[in-house]
Amino acid sequence: MKKTILEARALSKSFAHNGGQVHILTGVDLDIYEGDFTVIMGASGSGKSTMLYALSGMDKATAGRVMYEGKDIAAMNEKQLAALRHNDFGFVFQQMHLVSNLTLHENVAVPGFLNKGKTTAEVRQRAQELLKRMGIDHISTHLPSQVSGGEQQRCAVARALINEPRLLFADEPTGALNRRNTTEVLDLMTDLNREGQSILMVPHDIRAALRATRILYLSDGKVIGELTLPPYDRNEEKSRETQLNAWLGSMEW
Ligand SMILES: Nc1ncnc2c1ncn2[C@@H]1O[C@H](COP(=O)(O)OP(=O)(O)O)[C@@H](O)[C@H]1O
Ligand SMILES: [Mg+2]
Fold first, then answer.
1. Is 13 in the pocket of ligand 1 (CB under 6 A)?
2. Distance of CA 212 to the CA centre of its chain
């Protein structure tokens, strides 16, 4: 039995628009499990990012619950949410948001320094280990502008992992990368998941979605389908893609 990390029940999100309300999520029920590489798919504008933000405490839901370790994220105050985002979750976005006048090492270490449980030396060491793990330790004293987009995104992944998050959230992490850098970042995330890191990602394209072990399909404000896959294996990518496309067809993708 897999452990549940997040449990969303009747999760709804509406936005005020032109004097009325647009309902983006209308009662989402889902569980996110430990060890999974979960991916959320759905048409553009279907609410994937909105769902990721509501699940991670980056944004408030309009109604419903998101349970994490016995607590309702949707009912937390700003201070509790900030602590949760800082200590328990990691985030990677399409734009890397690295601090331009800090080195790669400093970018990774800074969120660690805010963590009271670790000494400066421990944080520095973990940052260096993560940079090594991401294959960018040899350029750790470079500024973001001095490295490639793929290297910047690998730095952003390292930063997201500095406080050992239980769940790594990623919203189209390869959306701004070329083909080669996309493969680099996806390979890295696949390896991290293989080593046990739980991931929840909105993929930029089918290629990114193929890395999932579990895919949820969002439509009309609800999760309408689910596909479970074995861990990604490069040698079986063609048949995996055929299987995924057939399933997406049944979801009227
Ligand atoms: N802050 C906001 N205010 C109003 N509408 C929003 C806001 N954020 C997102 N939306 C709308 O909600 C819908 C879903 O957006 P989003 O979650 O970004 O979709 P996806 O990530 O699936 O492409 C879109 O129609 C978008 O315009
Ligand atoms: Mg989006």
1. no
2. 12
